[in-house]
Amino acid sequence: MTIKNYFMGQAIDVGKMQSPIRWIDPEIIKPVPIDIACTGPKTIAMACDVADQVSFAVGSATERVEWAMNTARERLEETGRSRDDLKIGAYINLICDPDEKKAISMARMLAGLVAHFTAMKQAPTEHLPDQLKPITEKLQTDYDMMNHSSEKGEHLDLIDDAFIDWFSIAGSPQKCIDRLGELIDLGLDHVYLLGGSPVAEPRDARLRAMVEQTEIFATEVLPSFK
Q: Of 97, 55, 93, 95, nearest to 72 (Cα)?
């Protein structure tokens, strides 16, 4: 609640001082919404208690997002908080390309990165599905943190095509429309799309290629969700 109060212009304790953001006038500027990214059941429950928005980082498999949504709803029922009082969304791994093999290849690094969120030190694994649990347990000890967001990560040897196809949305525009539609139908209020690039490095070229790759999604998938 300290952060929430701070963004509403209230003073917080900083050592022996009271420190507000002086230019915030709550009568003019609406409070900044607190959006908490969540992967595990405890974080989802905590976010449902204090956040304005909850965004799941559990991959793009329908059953994973459905599990997260059910976990959030159960917490709201326990506390009596209204579903209308909370925006719920998800980070979605999505690579759109007519060449499905190419799309899956581009999604490998991202799938490993997001799967790692379930593999933090001492994170619970008993609730994970069979497709994810063994990978999570290996990533807890074998994750190549030096190459966290790189195609060079040694942990990517654990991320095979079948896992990527389940954990991410990777393939043709129609496949993306179908899979993304399933997730939105679960009741998501918003999505953050995590994309991929056909260029691994250097970084600038990688980012430019990622933007170009996103154009396929923008022109052939997004119109279906207007």
A: 55
Q: Is residue 3 part of a domain?
A: no
Structural domain includes residue 5: no
DSSP letters spanning 66-103 = HHHHHHHHHHHHHHT--GGG-EEEEEEEEEE-S-HHHH
Total domains, the chain: 1
State which residues form the domain around 60. Answer: 33-225
Q: 101-121, pLDDT tens digit by residue? A: 999 999 999 999 999 999 988
Structural domain contains residue 14: no
Q: Per the domain annotation, does 183 fall within a domain?
A: yes
Beta strands of the chain (E only): which ranges?
12-14, 17-19, 35-38, 53-56, 87-96, 169-171, 190-194
């899956």: which residue's tokens? 104
3-state secondary structure of 19: strand
CATH of the domain at 138: 3.20.20.30
pLDDT in tens, 21-69: 888 887 888 888 899 999 999 999 999 999 999 999 999 999 999 999 9
C-beta separation of 93 from 169 below 8 A: yes
The Cα 183–Cα 100 span in angstroms is 20
| pLDDT tens-digit readout, 60-102 | 999 999 999 999 999 999 999 999 999 999 999 999 999 999 9
When pLDDT is cut at 50, 70 and 90, the band that residue 1 belongs to is low
